[in-house]
Every structure is written in structure tokens, then in C-alpha cells.
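Worked example

This section walks through a single chain of length 225. The input is the sequence exactly as stored; nothing has been trimmed or padded.
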Amino acid sequence: MSVTPEQLAQVYPMLLHMAEPDTWNSIRQHGLLSTSRLLSLFDVKGQERFDIEAKRRPVSVSIAHPKYGRAVIRDQKPLIQSKLVKTLEGCTAEEWYRLLNRRVFFWLTKDRLDTLLCANTYAGNNHTVLTLDTLSLVKAHEERITLSHMNTGNTRPFAHPRGPDTFKKLEEYPFAERAKRGPNDRVVELVVEGGVTDIERYVLKVDVMRCQGGKGRVLRTIFKR
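Given that input, the structure is written out below as C-alpha cells.
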């Protein structure tokens, strides 16, 4: 049980992240930050922070700062609270939300990205999509990277068991054992705790994308290495 950065990149040469529209300049400046780090940067405190960080977000939330401007933190509609609490192992719902909010998530296949882009909540909107080089990012941040065999932010249509141990270090992940499941399910999420402040070093391109015909389509490219 283990996978090296090179083995991972051979199967998944690129990572994908879907962000809010018009966020590339901010991401370029501050990095791709977790929700918790973004809240700290924007000096969000007290009850407002608790509601964003420790509870399910039924809708996206806007935050503002006199220096850094405005940011949008995405909703968590796919996480159904009543289903979630039945699946958790080794943590409470509040702990799970905090755990997710301390991390930044990447898809490893375009099929997974297309599913998110074309979900009912997002299908009618444009999105900023970052394509990154897997090998260079993983080698630089391996100590903070974990892999997941499931979509940890979703309980639809089935609520699979989950807990802190769902996120496994590269040396713990059953990469070879899951090969028969195919690329979409061998590894579902690559996760970086805290986020990636030097994100521009690993970005290959940034596109504005939208769901068309059940797949994500590039409307225009705004950055390309």
C-alpha cells in the first residue's frame, strides 16, 4: 500500500480545481487557500466564522475585506446533514466540516470535473477552472497532501462511511489495490491541507468553463503557461 508522486502523476498527469468566476487574479496573488485560511486572511471572526466553518453551508457565502476585496465561499449543498451524521466514524459533524474547511480539493479526472460543472447548482454559470501539473505540485507539498477514494463533500445519492481516516497519505493509500476500479474511482480527490500559496508555479492553464451538453466546455483561456 503506497504510491509515489511519479506513479500518481503517470496515471493522473493533471489536477483540476473549479473556482468562482473572476477569481484568478486573487488566487494568483494570495494562493489557492482553504476556507479556514481565507477566513483568517479576511479577518472573519466570531459567530460569522463559526457559521461558515463549523456548519453546513446551504448557500454560498460572500465575505469582504477593505484590503483584499470580496471572496465567495461555495455552498455545501451535496452534503445532507441528516445523511452525514449517520456515516461519520471518529468525528462529529462539526469536526467534519472543520476538517473539510482546512483543506483544498482537486479532481484527478475531467469526468469528475464535468460532474461538478454540470450539477444543478452550477450548470447555468461560468466557472474558473485551474489545470495544474500533478508531479511538481505533489513533490513540493507531499507532506500536506492526502488522497481520498470518495467524494468527501457529497452524500448523494449514497452516503458512504467517512471520517478522518478517509484521507490517507501517499504512503498509506492502496493505489495498486484500487487499479481495477479505473481512473475515476482509483483516486477521487487529492487534498492539500491549508491550500497552496505558490499555486502559480504549478498552473498549466486557467479557463473559463461552463456546462454545455452535459460536459464542461472551455469558453476562453485566461492564462496558459
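What to look for: DSSP finds nine helices and eleven strands in the chain.
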